[in-house]
């Protein structure tokens, strides 16, 4: 069945917006309600004064309303789920690996007892997993529809400062911490002399995590993909859960080191 859709302006509802799409049973010929991006919209059948108001017997007046941007997420795409799994996997992996190293020296033993080599190997692994996660994220966005609500110039170009801020936080924190400080060297017994309090740690207590999350958000906004916003939320949750384990454990490691130092001074 073909449904010819008329804009309801003649009944006092105003002119239908050209960015609206229409959902109906059957097919809909709605040139005046077309959109460049396929997405679901809700509709309401309007009461008609009489059937004589219809140009054709098959006409139905429809008041179109735009769907929310999250109705533009295609959950049937496997790449979306693969990306979400990789986002959850990465912090889970490095926390398990770090805990195994701290308690059992698993990685150090693999490198002949050299803790520094073990830390470097873990750093390369974590960095590679991060690159692969970012690749899967971009592949997931490529298979997802965009939302007109995210395709305005304001939404698109707001991605630029977010991306620059995110990468600044990540890169400067890596510079301040060094390789072993960035990639869990404290679990290998490679401790820093004192906590870093300079930028970016003066503006964020977890600049690498916050910066990474901002970069994911910026990418989603740049391409106008609601699925990217959903996956960015997954990133934020994954990092928040990771910090629930990492922050107290790292604090314990340094508290133990400071206690041993104080005992050593008393012994002198």
From TrEMBL:
Give the binding site residues for S-adenosyl-L-methionine.
164-166, 246-247
Subcellular location per UniProt equals: Endoplasmic reticulum membrane; Mitochondrion membrane
| Ranges in the topological domain labelled Cytoplasmic | 133-159, 245-268
Q: Which reaction does it catalyse?
A: a 1,2-diacyl-sn-glycero-3-phospho-N,N-dimethylethanolamine + S-adenosyl-L-methionine = a 1,2-diacyl-sn-glycero-3-phosphocholine + S-adenosyl-L-homocysteine + H(+); a 1,2-diacyl-sn-glycero-3-phospho-N-methylethanolamine + S-adenosyl-L-methionine = a 1,2-diacyl-sn-glycero-3-phospho-N,N-dimethylethanolamine + S-adenosyl-L-homocysteine + H(+)
The metabolic or biological pathway listed in the UniProt record of this protein is: Lipid metabolism; Phospholipid metabolism; phosphatidylcholine biosynthesis
Q: What UniProt keywords are attached to this protein's entry? A: Endoplasmic reticulum, Lipid biosynthesis, Lipid metabolism, Membrane, Methyltransferase, Mitochondrion, Phospholipid biosynthesis, Phospholipid metabolism, S-adenosyl-L-methionine, Transferase, Transmembrane, Transmembrane helix
What is the protein's name according to its record?
A: Phosphatidyl-N-methylethanolamine N-methyltransferase
